Every structure is written in structure tokens, then in C-alpha cells.
Amino acid sequence: MSNNRVSRRQFLNYTLTGVGGFMAAGMLMPMIRFAIDPALQTKAEGDFVQTSQKIDEITEEPIKVDFTFEQVDAWYKSDVTEAAWVYRDGDAIIALSPVCKHLGCTVNWAGDSAHPDQYFCACHGGRYEKTGKNVPGTPPTGPLDEYEVAEKDGFLMLGKKIPNTLG
Ligand code: FES
Known about the structure:
Helices cover 20% and strands 36% of the residues. It is an alpha+beta fold. The protein has two domains: 1-40; 44-162, Rieske Iron-sulfur Protein, CATH 2.102.10. FE2/S2 (inorganic) cluster (FES) binds next to loops.
């Protein structure tokens, strides 16, 4: 006869511990998944957003292009509309963020009649060259951000914001 026999008390302990652990895991797993799931989802930030702007209608004169995308903030989804100033430079399409690098107001192309070939920020008189380079002596201390651009079926696609590469 073996000395390793399990007593009735031990058997009940093992069984109850096993069943209890199994049930606890069954209850906790969905809760843990619910808590961390949004953090595991891919952010829409890196994706390109379709615009209604035809590529072949973009000229050397900057135009404002609005685009809408779905923003996921934890469990809350909302449609966000943003804009870009878009122009053609040879074969390249340039898209600039309209957010002023001073305090975040919106800049407008030719917004100041004294400087019709620059972006103008009416909040504090900030100005930028067509490439987004900030004009020295005005409040902004850095250039406008760029958007990554792509083309799909002849239409402009805008990606994530990147630091200005145009100098
Ligand atoms: S926010 Fe644009 S110049 Fe101040």
C-alpha cells in the first residue's frame, strides 16, 4: 500500500481550489480584456484618410482641404474634422497643418493683404512662407507641420502629421 494516498480532506481541498480558481479566471479574464482592449487596438493615427480633393486639381496656389476621420479615445468614438493647406510643387503634393506653432490658432493662406504669398495667423500676426517656414520676427518659432500624403484613385489621401521637411 502506498503512503501517497490522498485523504478525503485533501481531495476536497484540491477540488475546491481547482474549481474556484477556474471560476475566478472565467470571471476575471473578460474584465481584464475589457480594461486593456482599447490600449491594444491600432490607433487610426497612422492610417491615411481619404479626402474629396482630386489630385489633378491641385495647383501651386495653396487650397484648404477639409477631411474627417473617426477618433477613438478609449471607449469613446467621435468624428473629427481637420484641415490642411495643400499645394503642388512640381510632381510633389505638399500638405501643411493650419495649426499655428505659436499658440495653436488657425493660419490662412493670403490672410494678410500686405503679404498675399504667405500664411497669416490673425491671433498675434504670425506669418509663414508657402513651405510653412515661419517668418523671423513674427511670434511663431517653428515651421508648420506637414501631413504625409498619398494618392488613391486620383484623390488625395492624408496621413499623420510629421515635422516640416521643407526647411
Ligand atoms: S497663435 Fe498664431 S501668432 Fe499667436
